[in-house]
């Protein structure tokens, strides 16, 4: 079953770009949330991750702060 | 064996790649990521041909230019060791593979220098950031401090002044550095306060950053309330993996041709001890090194 992926991003963020590229390469659909455009979503992101840092990636409710490829790959394999 | 191994994904590496590809050298490029510090910059306004361009867009143009050529690109990979063995260069990668080449150009850039004060590590990603433009939108309508008043600090302050309620720029020297045009622009901003001759002593807070303490020019301790602290006090070369002669700070020693102490290894951009850490300098050095490499290959 396909996993539900959300990526919280900002407009200038190399690690966000890397994360998006990673999911595109794997042909996994994701929802991108630009927190610059939506303050409420920015709050939501900080509450979920407990950190002030982008990107934040959510896979089926599991939250990751930053883009750690190995960690994400492991979660996708579950 | 490859003619040339390039390490890095910033302007120095990609310039070397384009020049070497056009000379039809057989190239492998290994990089953790593309972009370098260019991609972390809001606006680039001093690179010829682009009056004003987002750093990320310029970085993408560099990458796309390189990808026009038939080059073996190994992205998302780090080089753990790079050394010369007789007349070849060997790179050991973090995926347990090895690349052997006749020559190498190292352009793996630099990392941000840490401030080394209490609270910096505790509040990392809790208000302390090393990429002001990436995390900047998290500080909308809040107070932030940029530590470091050189060119990159000023650029970050200009960007944050559009987002944050108030921006403090804290510089340890008696004046800001970098481009006068940007300093003048910064001084025009109503929500920016520049504090010079100030030494940051501590970043404090409970769960997240709530403020910082600094020592002013009269050695008096002062405190400001900020929710964000962006550290922009300079760069340190990312050169640990390269076995060549280096200076005290890890900067790779090169000659005028960008050649290191190993005659088949070149180093360009922020990582070496020559020139300013600027896009134009890195691009020029990349060109220089690639043409030197071609001479070596053709002599064989």
Topology, pairings included?
The complex is a heterodimer of chains A (78) and B (300).
Chain A lengths: L4 E5 L4 H12 L5 E4 L4 H11 L6 E4 L2 E4 L3 H9 L1
Parallel strand pairs in A: 1-2
Antiparallel strand pairs in A: 1-3, 3-4
Chain B lengths: L1 E6 L3 H12 L4 E5 L11 E2 L8 E2 H13 L4 E4 L3 E7 L2 E6 L4 E9 L3 E3 L15 E2 L2 H4 L7 E5 L3 H11 L4 E5 L9 H8 L4 E4 L3 E7 L3 E7 L5 E5 L2 E4 L3 E3 L27 E3 L11 H21 L1
Parallel strand pairs in B: 1-2, 1-8, 2-5, 8-19, 10-17, 11-12, 11-17, 12-13
Antiparallel strand pairs in B: 3-4, 6-7, 7-8, 9-18, 14-15, 15-16
Helix pairs in contact in B: 1-2, 1-6, 4-5
Major beta sheet of chain B, specifics?
7 strands, mixed
Shape of chain B: elongated
CATH topology heading of the largest domain in chain B:
FAD/NAD(P)-binding domain
Q: What is the CATH topology of chain A?
A: Glutaredoxin
Number of helices of chain A: 3
Strand content of chain B: 25-35%
Key phrases:
heterodimer, A: 78 residues, alpha+beta, Glutaredoxin, four-stranded mixed β-sheet, B: FAD/NAD(P)-binding domain, FAD/NAD(P)-binding domain, seven-stranded mixed β-sheet, 6 helices, 19 strands, 30% strand
Provide a concise account of the structure shown.
With 78 residues, chain A is α+β, with helices and mostly antiparallel strands.
Please give a structural write-up:
The complex is a heterodimer of chains A (78) and B (300). With 78 residues, chain A is of the alpha+beta class. Chain A has a single domain (5-77), classed as Glutaredoxin, CATH 3.40.30. Chain A has helices at 14-25, 39-49, 69-77, and strands spanning 5-9, 31-34, 56-59, 62-65. Chain A has a 4-stranded mixed beta sheet with strand order 2-1-3-4, with helices on both faces. In chain A, helix 1 (14-25) links the parallel strand 1 and strand 2 (31-34). The mean pLDDT of chain A is 93. In chain B, strand 3 and strand 4 form a beta hairpin. Chain B is elongated. In chain B, 23% of the residues lie in helices and 30% in strands. Chain B is built from 6 helices and 19 strands. Chain B folds into 2 domains: 2-111 and 235-299, FAD/NAD(P)-binding domain (3-Layer(bba) Sandwich); 128-231, 3-Layer(bba) Sandwich (FAD/NAD(P)-binding domain). The A-B interface holds A 10-18, 35-36, 39, 42, 46, 51-54, 65-66, 69 and B 33, 35, 39-42, 54-56, 59, 76, 125-127, 129, 131, 133-140, 208, 228.
């Amino acid at each position: 079953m396909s996993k539900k992926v959300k990526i919280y991003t900002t407009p200038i963020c190399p690690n966000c770009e890397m994360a998006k590229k990673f999911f595109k390469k794997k042909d996994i659909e994701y929802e991108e949330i630009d927190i610059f455009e939506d303050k409420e979503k920015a709050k939501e992101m900080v509450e979920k991750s407990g950190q002030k840092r982008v990107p934040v990636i959510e896979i089926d409710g599991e939250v990751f702060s930053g883009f750690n490829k190995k960690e994400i790959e492991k979660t996708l394999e579950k | 064996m490859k003619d040339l191994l390039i390490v890095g994904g910033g302007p120095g590496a990609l310039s070397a790649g384009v020049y070497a590809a056009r000379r039809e050298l057989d190239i492998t490029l290994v990089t953790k990521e593309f972009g370098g510090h260019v991609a972390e910059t809001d606006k680039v306004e001093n690179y010829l041909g682009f009056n004003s361009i987002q750093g990320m867009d310029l970085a993408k143009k560099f990458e796309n230019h390189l990808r026009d050529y038939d080059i073996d690109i190994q992205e998302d990979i780090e080089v753990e060791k790079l050394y010369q063995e007789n007349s070849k260069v060997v790179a050991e990668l973090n995926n347990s593979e090895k690349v052997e080449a006749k020559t190498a150009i190292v352009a793996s850039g630099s990392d941000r220098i840490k401030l080394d004060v209490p609270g910096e590590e505790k509040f990392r990603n809790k208000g302390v950031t090393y990429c002001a433009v990436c995390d900047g939108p998290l500080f909308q309508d809040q107070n932030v401090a940029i530590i470091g008043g050189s060119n990159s600090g000023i650029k970050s302050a200009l960007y944050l002044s559009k987002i944050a309620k108030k921006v403090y720029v804290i510089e340890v020297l008696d004046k800001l550095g970098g481009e006068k045009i940007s300093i003048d622009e910064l001084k025009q901003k109503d929500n920016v306060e520049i504090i010079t001759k100030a030494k940051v002593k501590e970043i404090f807070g409970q769960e997240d950053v709530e403020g910082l303490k600094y020592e002013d020019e009269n050695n008096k301790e002062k405190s400001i309330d900020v929710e964000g602290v962006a550290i922009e006090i300079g760069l340190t070369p990312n050169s640990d993996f390269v076995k060549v002669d280096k200076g005290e700070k890890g900067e790779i020693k090169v000659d005028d041709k960008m050649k290191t102490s190993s005659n088949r290894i070149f180093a360009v951009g922020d990582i070496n001890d020559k020139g300013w850490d600027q896009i134009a300098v890195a691009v020029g050095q990349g060109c220089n090194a690639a043409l030197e490499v071609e001479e070596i290959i053709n002599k064989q």
